[in-house]
User: What shape does this take?
Amino acid sequence: MAAKKTITVEQYASANRRPEIQTQTLKGLGLNKLHRRRVLEDTPDVRGMINKIPHLVRVVDEKGKA
Assistant: This one.
């Protein structure tokens, strides 16, 4: 069985005074406090969520086999 590609995402900005949809996107990624990190499966859905809030999160690490 092949190893799945993963991506580590960190929240580095607050969702205060942001539209509700951005707060819900953070929650969907498993983030809701500053400097919290999550290791997620690297899928187009996750990438799309990250691309919706690039001002709040950063990609820390990408691992996996191509």
